[in-house]
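Our consortium's second objective concerns turning raw sequence data into structural hypotheses that experimental partners can test. To show how far this objective has progressed, the report includes one record in full. It was chosen at random from the queue rather than selected for favorable results. The single chain below, 636 residues long, was entered without modification.
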Amino acid sequence: MKKIENSSIIMAIVSFCVFLPVLVNRSLIPDWTQYLESHYTFIHIILELASTLIVFTIVLLGIFFYKYSSTLPAIILAGSFIATGVFDLFHTLTYKGLANDIVDNSFTFSNLFWITARFTESIALLLVIFLPKKGTNDEITKNTFIAFSLYAIFISLLIFLKSESFPALFQNGSPTILKNCLEYLFALLHAMVLARGLFLYKSGGKREYLFLAAGACLLMFSSILFASYEHYYDQKNFLGHIFKIIGYFYLFRAVIILLGERPYETVKVLSEKYSRLLDTVVEGIYGTDLDGRLIFVNASGTKMLGYREDELIGRKLHPLIHHTKADGTRHFEEDCVISNTSRTGLSHHVKEDCFWRKDGTPVPVEFFTRPILEGKNIVGTVVTFFDISQRKQLEVLQNKQNMLDHEIDLAVSVQQSLLSAGNQSSDLENIGVVSKPFKKLNGDFYAFVQQPEGMTIAIADVCGKGIPAAIQMTMMKFAMEANRKPPLILEDVNRFFAKYMDNYSFITMLVGFYNQDTKIFSYSSAGHEPALLYKTEKDEFTELTTGDPIIGIHNEFVYQSKDIQLEEGDYLLLYTDGIIEKKNNKIDNNDVLREAFRKADLTMPVQYIADSMFDAIRDYHGPGVYDDQTLIVVRA
């Protein structure tokens, strides 16, 4: 970029160094007048044909590359040069000394064509540099070329047929004041283009604006020289033509960028930008230009469509993936909402449609379309699409999940019935229970079975949750009802567990028998949290445990039993690990349980005591509870 800028600056400085001496004092440079007068017709033809060749080259660029340009100014520049080239060609063919014998007043024609060409050129450059870079399409481009062609034909006929109606531009071999004023006007217009071009180049750094500014600068020098020469063979006239040719060359370079390079640079920048971002997402995403040709597609998109990226880039996408609807009817491109976005700039959301893979199989999709904007101009469309066959599979899974939830609800109902069965006896007035599951199904088990001499009490924590835990609880309930001695209950459960459950499950359980007459509490523990006995008279806690392993370690293990004497007003506290374990605590003990008990009002009913203790424990844990919690309070 710096090299191009430097070369343009050098050209402008050299041109100015030649322009200024010629304009101010012709004696500063060699006098070529005699040579020019002898050969001027030939020299003029060569110079004008050179500039006309550049002009028509610009026109051809517009014709061949208009499909790849997305801006109206570039098309106006190429289209206007149709008329400029025609006028310059007629100016050359009717010039003095070339067509005098063929056409009357040929020099009048030549001067009128000259002024008309300079007027068209100046206005076109002004439009190009000041018009916004509005997007165009095939119809607008063709109409622009047709309009300038008709303009060239109409003005040419008008000059040939009505030349006497126009004011004179030359008298006595010298330009008139009108002709010079028009040339100065053209110089002013070129100066405006020069200033605007430099401003846009400094703002955005785009080379086309630098070349437009350089071309306008040289054409400005040319117009000033054409306004100041005194006769046909003046050196200013000759140098004015030289500046005009060089100025057109810079315009040619600007058009090369606008029509040839800039669209491809835009495509490249967009492709690199979006490909880096879009290859990281699972949705299919692709972009098309205004003609519907693919400019980028992410990896998810090619995978869903079954194509390689190189098989799609540059090709019109609608005939490949969107040609047919799901019902088999043809899908015309003019009815396609994706094409509509490029035309109108409107975004669309289609909940269900059909794309076609490379192998010819359909893929149901949901897609969104949005215009790709460069400034305020639409340069294409981006499409985000989802394979909704996956969504349908998720809907099937959701239905299955709903059925499973229904089954779990039934299991919850069965579990609640199981836990509450036999727990409504009047003998339980000195027992309080609180049990809160972490999820729907409770992994904690508790039960009370009334026996002739007393009551069997059990509490357990089942590894794992859900329906398997509910099955294990049912088995434990049956074992309690079949046998009243705590160690035998544990052994029955252990054998059943070893036979029917997997090796990765286990149970901690504490079973006790409380003789309500003798107030002796006999208990056995299978790795469960130790029960707490609170002696009211001594105001002290005692931990009750037998030290035996959890259920599921050894299927023939013989569990031991211990007895302890309770007094009137003593309390037994049975609980699961969810009561005392707090997340992120390195040390777990039952101090929180002891503290909650000491704060409780022991004059209240036992259930009230259990509820108040549980509330205090919940406050201790806060919202971070991730386990089932069960607390049993027994008053002797």
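The partners drew two points from this record. The radius of gyration is 48 Å. The chain is about 55% helix and 15% strand. Both points have been shared with the crystallography group to help prioritize constructs.
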